[in-house]
Amino acid sequence: MPVAHVTFGTNNLERGARFYDAVMAEFGGARTFAHDKAIGWSFPDGGPSIGITYPFDGEAANRGNGTMFALMAADEDMVRRVHAAALASGGSCEGEPGLRANGFYAAYFRDPDGNKMNAFCMPAA
């Protein structure tokens, strides 16, 4: 069954929105909804959407240890652009863009709330 969306908790909706606006713009994505407790973005060609929300229980959002959301990029240049947009928009680096041991090209980063993500592609043969 295909994934419909992934949602990350946030402690600051405005700060998170700046981060995801920048990252999703690199994929050609845009906001699909926004209200006072949550915001969502979609990719232009479909696939899972991304959302951020204040936790329903009213407690502080926290990151899941070992949890990561991977975003497939078109090519290595796009991986580099996504990583740069993430860092320029309040994210932190978890691994510079580069070729990985298992043959794919990736960059790792965290959003302002500490949620881990990566952008990756399979290098052209």
TrEMBL record:
Q: Which residues form the VOC domain?
A: 2-122
UniProt cross-references to Gene3D superfamilies, sorted A to Z: 2,3-Dihydroxybiphenyl 1,2-Dioxygenase, domain 1 (3.10.180.10)
CDD domains found in the cross-reference section: VOC_like
User: What Pfam families does the record point to?
Assistant: Glyoxalase (PF00903)
PANTHER family this protein is in? BLL2941 PROTEIN (PTHR35006:SF1), GLYOXALASE FAMILY PROTEIN (AFU_ORTHOLOGUE AFUA_5G14830) (PTHR35006)
Listed name of the protein: VOC family protein
Species of the source: Novosphingobium album (ex Hu et al. 2023)
Source species taxonomy: Bacteria, Pseudomonadati, Pseudomonadota, Alphaproteobacteria, Sphingomonadales
